[in-house]
Amino acid sequence: MLGSGQTDFALQLKNLSKKLLTVVAWDPQGYGHSRLPDRDFPVDFFERDAKDAVDLMKMLKFKKFSLLGWNEGGITELFAAVKYPSYINKMVIWGAKAYVTKEDKRIYRGIWDVSKWSEKTRKPLEALYGYDYLAKTCEKWVDGIGQFKHLPNGNICRHLLPLVQCPTLIVHGEKDILVARFHADFIHEHVKGSRLHLMPDGKHNLHLRFANEFNKFTENFLQ
């Protein structure tokens, strides 16, 4: 939600090995510097983001590439891997889910009002977006992700998981209070040949809090 390369992946853009990797970060429609338009959340917004991401990489002349996706980005890359398999080499996913539960929806309602966020969490996004856009888009996101709860089995992309063909690493922080462990287990169980890497002290932002560790095992996986 409201993620951008600038706010969410600075420690990957700066510190992932430039000898091993070319690192590209992008901002989906309505996020970061990909504005206008303002962000909206039709039921197919993950598919739209996946197409935009792959189209960007094709425009940049990459014929094959790997994906790293956090939370909403992790869901987006699952769509990309199934819709555009010939382009995807490997995937790393963390903080993502394939369906929405009643408890998930309760958690989302808890973050609906950005005025109640901690200053540490709110300030970087407020600096990027301004308070009004941040608050308005957060409310729309809660409603947008909540719409999947009303679909059969809360489905976002659970039907796609058995179709993933590329090597996949699923990372989960055991102290993540926003995404429960069973979501990572479900993706691991249904993506053939996937690996699950647990970080006992990791929270939702494990790639920032433990950037050196995250970057190292990510590099090893992608090689």
UniProtKB/TrEMBL annotation:
Cited InterPro entries: AB_hydrolase_1, AB_hydrolase_fold
Domain of life where this protein originates: Eukaryota
Presence of the UniProt keyword Hydrolase in the record: yes
GO molecular function: serine hydrolase activity
SUPFAM superfamilies reported in the protein's UniProt record: alpha/beta-Hydrolases (SSF53474)
Domain AB hydrolase-1: start-end pairs: 13-109
Pfam families per UniProt: Abhydrolase_1 (PF00561)
The UniProt record lists the keyword Hydrolase: yes
Keywords: Hydrolase
PANTHER family referenced in this protein's UniProt entry, alphabetically: VALACYCLOVIR HYDROLASE
Official protein name in the record: Valacyclovir hydrolase
